[in-house]
């Protein structure tokens, strides 16, 4: 088994690459998933058959306990709560990395990396990096989960000297790791863990709720780097390959999200975006302009007489659970001969691709759902745009107001359509706390009310 | 008589020398294996880094090809496969007897299992919803 194991691990690595490869198209995705499951099964089986792994009782108990919990959570979770779920799962990977590194530190013989108190320097460095990244991932993901779940305020929590403190703690972490590698003191290992745990909290707290898609992607990336770090400690190529794949994936998603908001990664990480200052400005400028406010009947009339409709969903749609009502409205319109499509902004929702999943859940075919760059040119030839639960991603000031905090962000050019129907709970500003001049445009009709109720009322009027 | 004594003494001397030689040989052999093991350890760092850098490139190209519509399933499945860290957890939890490191390994097995099962199942749930126009 000792000689076969590396081969089996190699096969598992290839399976994981194939799993990601499958996601290039919805049709091949299911097959990709099968590769992933097979690869994981192979990896676990190979490890269990290693000669020094004999405590089967413990292992089976652990897998059953964890597997049951994971299965129940995954079956019950609502698709709107997906970002929180992913954040919570990331925290578990982080904590598992901490545990594995700690196990290797207290019992290095099992991993052939030396004896307790005299671990090879290279292994110790890899181990410290793995444990530090794991610990940051753990607490950082818990904070991200809290912000997405609404347990912790979505407002950025900032204080004076915050960046200086974080930088100082970061340097201290490096110093501690250096001391640990030279002295091998177990207490220093504990300090590294504790400091990294604290750093995870401090790094994510100042980041506002609107930036969570980037943060969830970043933590996804971190969980990969932590796995790779542990892979170096264990001299295991499978962990290194998988860690690199996951790390690259998270990094690319973070990059796409940042580009979708026209922000640099550093700007997001430093936090403080979408705080009080922007919200204050929005309230002040609200008074001197008036918006056109319509009813569900008005909206139904306009929609029925359109030749083409583009629906722009945002996170508000998911919160109101309006996606099913929305699809019903689309079905009625399609029967009337109206061309209905959906436009998705890269940062709509709270995680990459969130809107696509929510629409798919409501049985919207994926070929009617288009990305920003594929549909933005079509708005000028569109009769009606139905904006539901979205705000900032349609804000024209991103294009023409250099003083706007979101200036330069790519937005959907909805104002170019003949009519914009904007469903919104109240006239307040959006999630990022920024005023939207679209509300007061001549071709905009505001539909004030709950997104689901409004859409259902429109369906009723359409059917009459 | 004296000849005999001489011979015995010589034999004893020779035996001691032989023992010393064998000790010396063992010592050299030990040093040799240690240095080989040492070189082996350093070698892994280089091998590991090679694998790591190449895998980053593979990841880069594969992930850019993922359609944006499936970015959520991508996050869920990467989450599940990053739990391959269970390999380390199993090695820690594997030995017989009860030690602190085994307990840590056991906890890590539980955590990683939550992720593996949860991640794959939620990915499956998502993917099964994506349908083409009827």
Characteristics:
heterodimer, A: 464 residues, alpha/beta, 6-stranded parallel beta sheet, two-stranded antiparallel sheet, 18 helices, 8 strands, 8% strand, elongated, B: 134 residues, mainly alpha
How does this model look, in words?
The complex is a heterodimer of chains A (464) and B (134). With 464 residues, chain A is α/β, with parallel strands linked by helices. In chain A, 59% of the residues lie in helices and 8% in strands. In chain A, strand 1 (114-115) and strand 2 (118-119) form a beta hairpin. Chain A is elongated, with a radius of gyration of 25 Å. Mean pLDDT of chain A is 88; it is low at 275-287. Chain B contains four helices and no strands. In chain B, helix 2 runs antiparallel to helix 4 (100-129) and helix 3 runs antiparallel to helix 4 (100-129). The longest helix of chain B is centred in the first third of the chain and has 63 residues, at 2-64. Chains A and B meet through helix 1, helix 2, helix 3, helix 4 and helix 8 of A and helix 1, helix 2, helix 3 and helix 4 of B.
Shape of chain A: elongated
Q: What's the order of the H and E elements of chain B?
A: HHHH
| Major beta sheet summary of chain A | 6 strands, parallel
- Percent helix range of chain A: 55-70%
Radius of gyration of chain B: 30 Å
SS class of chain A: alpha/beta
| Low-pLDDT ranges of chain B | 35-41
Backbone structural class of chain B: mainly alpha
User: Biggest interface pair, residues each?
Assistant: A-B, 120 and 84 residues
Enumerate how many helices of chain B there are, as a single number. Answer: 4
Strand segment tally of chain A = 8
Strand residue percentage of chain A:
5-15%
Helical proportion of chain B, percent range: over 70%
> How many strands, which pairing sense, and closed or not: the largest β-sheet of chain B?
none
Number of strands of chain B: 0
Order of helices and strands of chain A: HHHHEEHHHHHHHHEHHEHEHEHEEH
Amino-to-carboxy terminus distance of chain B? 113 Å
Mean pLDDT of chain B: 84
C-alpha Rg of chain A (nearest Å): 25 Å
């Amino acid at each position: 088994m000792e000689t076969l194991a590396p081969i089996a691990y190699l096969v598992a690595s290839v399976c994981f690459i194939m799993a990601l490869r499958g996601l290039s198209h919805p049709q091949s995705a299911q097959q990709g998933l099968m590769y992933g499951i097979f690869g994981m099964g192979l990896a676990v089986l190979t490890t269990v058959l290693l000669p020094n792994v004999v405590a089967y009782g413990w292992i089976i108990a652990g897998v059953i306990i964890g597997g049951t919990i994971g299965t129940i959570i995954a079956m019950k979770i609502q698709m709107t709560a997906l970002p929180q779920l992913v954040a919570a799962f990331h925290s578990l990977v982080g904590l598992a990395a901490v545990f594995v590194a700690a196990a290797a530190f207290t019992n290095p013989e099992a991993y052939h990396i030396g004896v307790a108190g005299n671990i090879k320097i290279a292994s110790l460095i890899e181990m410290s990096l793995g444990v530090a990244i794991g610990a940051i991932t753990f607490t950082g993901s818990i904070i991200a989960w809290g912000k997405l779940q609404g347990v912790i305020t979505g407002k950025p929590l900032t204080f004076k000297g915050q960046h200086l403190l974080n930088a100082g703690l970061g340097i201290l972490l490096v110093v501690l790791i250096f001391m640990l590698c030279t002295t091998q003191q177990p207490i220093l290992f504990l300090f590294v863990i504790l400091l990294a745990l604290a750093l995870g909290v401090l790094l994510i707290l100042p980041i506002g709720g609107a930036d969570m898609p980037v943060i969830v992607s970043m933590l996804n990336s971190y969980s990969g780097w932590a796995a790779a770090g542990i892979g170096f400690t264990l001299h295991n190529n499978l962990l290194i390959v998988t860690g690199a794949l996951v790390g690259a994936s998270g990094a690319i998603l973070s990059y796409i999200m940042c580009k979708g908001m026209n922000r640099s990664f550093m700007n997001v990480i430093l936090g403080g975006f979408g705080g009080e200052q922007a919200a204050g400005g929005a309230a002040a400028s609200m008074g001197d302009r008036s918006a056109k406010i319509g009813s569900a009947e008005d909206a139904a009339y306009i929609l029925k007489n359109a030749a083409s409709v583009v629906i722009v969903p945002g996170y508000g749609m998911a919160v109101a659970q309006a996606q099913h009502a929305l699809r019903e409205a689309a079905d009625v319109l399609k029967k009337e001969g109206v061309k209905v499509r959906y436009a998705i902004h890269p940062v709509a929702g709270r995680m990459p691709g969130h809107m696509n999943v929510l629409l798919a859940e409501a049985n919207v075919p994926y070929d009617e759902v288009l990305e920003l760059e594929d549909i933005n040119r079509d708005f000028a030839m569109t009769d009606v745009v139905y904006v539901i639960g979205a705000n900032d991603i349609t804000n024209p000031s991103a294009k023409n107001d250099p003083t706007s905090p979101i200036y330069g962000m790519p937005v959907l050019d909805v104002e170019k359509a003949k009519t914009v129907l904007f469903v919104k709970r109240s006239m307040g500003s959006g999630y990022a706390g920024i005023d939207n001049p679209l509300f007061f445009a001549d071709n905009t009709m505001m539909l004030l009310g709950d997104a689901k109720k409004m859409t259902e009322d429109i369906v009723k009027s359409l059917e009459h | 008589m004296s000849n005999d004594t001489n011979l015995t003494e010589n034999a004893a001397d020779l035996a001691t020398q032989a023992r010393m030689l064998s000790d010396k040989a063992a010592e050299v052999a030990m040093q040799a294996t240690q240095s080989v093991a040492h070189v082996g350890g350093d070698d892994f760092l280089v091998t590991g880094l090679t694998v790591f850098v190449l895998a980053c490139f593979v990841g880069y190209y594969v992930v850019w090809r993922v359609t944006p519509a499936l970015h959520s399933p991508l996050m869920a499945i990467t989450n599940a496969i990053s739990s391959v860290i269970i390999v380390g957890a199993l090695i820690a939890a594997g030995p017989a007897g009860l030690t602190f490191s085994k307990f840590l390994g056991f906890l890590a097995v539980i955590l990683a299992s939550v992720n593996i099962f949860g991640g794959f199942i939620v990915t499956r749930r998502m993917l099964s919803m994506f349908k083409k126009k009827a």
